[in-house]
Write a structure and sequence with these properties.
Residues 508-723 form the vWA-MoxR associated protein C-terminal domain. This protein is of the alpha/beta class and 737 residues long. It is 38% helix and 16% strand.
Length: 737
């Protein structure tokens, strides 16, 4: 099986889906043009036209692009027949597979690439992950296709819970085939899990960027340098994100001939400074592993602590070879430093003095060779990633990060590697507990006992290695004390306002400040006052007690008034500058209508799911729902932490009342849009934010709405009915501010 570059033995399979049975709203202009761009680049390198296999479902306006191009349809039957019957009979060295069209994330986080037959009530598609498994399996004869390159330019956003539950399982071609370890795989995906693949100007942003990266390679007779192209793509998207032109985060998977796996391109050649650092680190390693006992201890710890996917050093590898393995592996240099610590002599004396003197040179030598902020070993990094994949640990950790560090920026909150990389880089001052360990401890305080114990065990091992065990235990004790005192880990402060229904040209009101078990009666208006007068009292209360951007402001209202735009009230904070309340503070509404006793447990049960949930766990109520049908809709989804309301405005009061008395603690709606338009506005704004952070997320969206009149953040409303923080006892007397 040759992995050379004989273009006569290169095959290209391209699937482009533009027209869908779902109708005009589903149609996508660009995949055909993108597929032809990749085909033209490959044929320009010498790949013969007879080796091109194009399956397309073009828009009528793009059908002319296929004139003179041999192609078949991209319907489900044709795709299955090609991959199951035609492809296994092809003979070649390189196989390129390209797919462009709509994609969604369905049950089990599977990525479904939708067939042209897909419609809203029948999301039939192909499992993208299983397609890659199939291409890497022995379904293709072992002597064929030593290298397989797969490119998928499609979205990967999860469906709303109700649609996800109803979606059919995507097709997969793999049955009993086994992974063919001799085949090198290179897989490009246009976006991370939960992400959107941008399409502009009749072409996919990812494919356009990829082709630019491929075409930038110097002319030559050899195969394309995919690692170099991957670095160009990464750099291009870094620039797009920095300038706000795209949020898209492409990713890739790569497996080399030895079966080593990685999710990043091969590193670029070392710079002169890095080569000098490598030489110094190699000398330090040689000195510390000069005797057989030290060498064995070092090799054992290095192999144990490296990522499971890292290349395994050969027996009796030299110090230089071990350093090469470390440099070429994610978190490898940190792992090497940890392994050098294992060579420390047990007894005091000249050997220990020599060790201390020598190892002191290792850290500065390693600095140019590892990313800024990296301090986890490969095993520690992989271990935490595995924990983040269990239960609700990831969204709980993301919420804990925002509680611990308000304003922290996470590039992709629903992508475990991205979250972990962002938090690892938050390096504290010397001799302080790393922020990541502070956050994992806060997370453990919110998790079920088994998940919490596993996470704390991971933290214990990390803290022991870096000499921070006492700091970690002190942090754990502080959180335990806080939980016992307040009943909530990381419980924040809040201002609570009870408003009566409208009467006499205004409303009566009461204002409290709360933090944990502390309650301060701030103000009371026994006689109806207009909104401007109430907001003045609230403004003064916030000035005295609150923290901008952090203190939660809760308005308690009857169901008929939950649509009141309290977040648009103005405050001044004793200045001449007017500002919107909902821009400076996370503002939510809560219901005051009595909740029947049989539904109190439902209310608490749903709220328990908020701490570890994400916005996509909310149930989308039907657009045409009326009040009398709400209980039935809620009963079908008893585990949903809350609902999204898109019903017409005339039905909302009834829906709000039915939800509040039925024990729904979280409701989200768009005040200015209804039905499908509301869904179209809400879905991209809400994204995959942890539910625990939703009030703060809406504050940020409202702030964006103040800057841009066309931004819909200003129209978002949130019911946030926390059973653990009811209204305090009514004030008996007016309380002066």
């Amino acid at each position: 099986m040759s992995a050379g570059w004989d273009t006569e033995r290169v095959h290209v399979v391209a699937v482009a889906v533009e027209e869908y049975a779902g109708g005009a709203a589903w149609h996508l202009d660009g995949p055909v043009r993108d597929a032809l761009g990749l085909i033209d680049w490959l044929t320009g390198l010498g790949v013969p036209e007879r080796n091109v296999h194009l399956l397309a479902a073009p828009l009528p306006a793009n059908a002319a692009l296929l004139a003179g191009r041999g192609h078949a349809g991209a319907d489900r039957g044709t795709v299955r027949t090609f991959f199951k019957r035609v492809l296994p009979r092809l003979d070649g060295d390189w196989l390129w597979v390209y797919w462009a069209g709509h994609g969604v994330q369905v049950k089990g986080s599977e990525w479904s690439l939708l067939y042209p037959e897909a419609r809203e009530d029948d999301l039939v598609g192909l499992d993208a992950g299983k397609l890659v498994d199939y291409l890497c399996s022995d379904a293709l004869a072992p002597h064929r296709f030593g290298r397989v390159v797969t490119v998928v330019d499609a979205c990967r956003q999860p469906l709303p819970p109700a649609e996800r539950a109803a979606a059919p399982e995507p097709d997969h071609f793999i049955t009993r085939e086994t992974l063919h370890r001799g085949r090198q795989a290179f897989v490009w995906r246009a976006c991370e899990p939960g992400g959107l693949a941008k399409n502009t100007g009749g072409e996919g942003l990812f494919t356009r960027t990829l082709l630019t990266g491929l075409r930038a390679a110097p002319d030559g007779a050899g195969p394309p340098d995919l690692d170099a192209a991957a670095r160009r793509v990464d750099d291009a998207f870094d620039r797009l994100r920095e300038t706000g032109q795209a949020d898209q985060l492409p990713n890739l998977y790569r497996r080399d001939w030895r079966g080593n796996e990685t999710d990043r391109p091969a590193p670029p050649p070392l710079t002169g400074e890095q080569l000098r650092a490598k030489a110094q680190l190699t000398r330090v390693t040689e000195l510390l592993t000069a005797d057989p006992h030290s060498a064995a201890a070092f090799a054992f710890h290095l192999v144990r602590e490296l990522s499971p996917h890292a290349p395994v050093p050969r027996p009796a590898a030299t110090a230089g070879e071990l350093v090469d393995v470390a440099i070429g592996t994610a978190h490898g240099v940190t792992t090497l430093l940890a392994a050098l610590d294992a060579t420390r002599p047990a007894e005091p004396g000249p050997h220990l003095d020599h060790w201390r003197h020598t190892v002191a040179d290792a850290e500065p030598a390693a600095r140019p060779l590892r990313p800024s902020g990296e301090w986890l070993t490969g095993l520690e990094h992989g271990g935490l990633l595995a924990l983040l994949a269990t239960g609700r640990t990831l969204p709980t950790l993301v919420g804990a990060a925002h509680d611990e560090l308000p304003g922290v920026r996470l590039t992709a909150p629903d992508d475990p590697p991205a979250v972990l990389d962002d938090l690892e880089r938050l390096v504290p001052r010397r001799h302080q507990l790393p922020q990541l360990l502070r956050i994992t401890e806060r997370t453990a305080a919110l998790l079920p006992p088994d998940d919490a114990a596993a996470l704390q065990s991971w933290s214990d091992r990390c803290a022991e290695r870096i000499g921070m065990t006492q700091a970690l235990l002190a942090r754990r004790a502080d959180l335990q004390e806080e939980t016992e005192r307040t009943g909530h880990a990381a419980d924040g402060d809040r201002v609570q306002i009870r408003l009566s229904g409208p009467a006499g040209g205004g409303r009566t009101y009461e204002i409290w400040y709360r933090r944990g078990t502390e309650v301060v009666a701030v103000a009371k208006g026994d006689r109806p006052r207009p909104a401007a007068g109430i907001s003045d009292d609230l403004d003064e209360a916030l000035y005295r007690y609150a923290r901008a951007h952090e203190t939660l402001v809760e308005f308690f209202l009857p169901a008929a008034d939950l649509d009141l735009e309290v977040h648009r009230w103005t405050i001044r904070a004793r200045t001449d500058v007017e500002r919107r309340l909902g821009t400076d503070y996370p503002v939510v509404v809560r219901g005051t209508d009595p909740r029947p006793q049989p539904y109190v447990h439902t209310w608490r049960k749903r709220w328990e799911r908020v701490a570890a949930g994400i916005v996509r766990d909310l149930h989308w109520l039907p657009d045409d729902l009326e009040r009398d049908r709400v209980p039935g809709a809620l009963s079908l989804h008893p585990d949903a932490p809350g609902c999204v309301v898109t019903a017409p405005a005339r039905h909302r009061t009834g829906i709000f009342l039915a939800c509040v008395v039925s024990g729904v603690p979280v409701l989200v709606w768009h005040r200015a849009e209804e039905r499908r338009a509301a869904r179209d506005r809400l879905e991209p704004l809400l994204g995959a934010v942890p539910l625990a952070r939703l009030p703060h997320h809406l504050r940020e969206l409202r702030a964006a709405g103040d800057l841009d009149d066309d931004h819909h953040g200003k129209h978002l409303a949130l019911l946030w009915d926390d059973p653990g923080h009811p209204l305090p006892r009514r004030l008996d007397l007016s309380a002066p501010v």
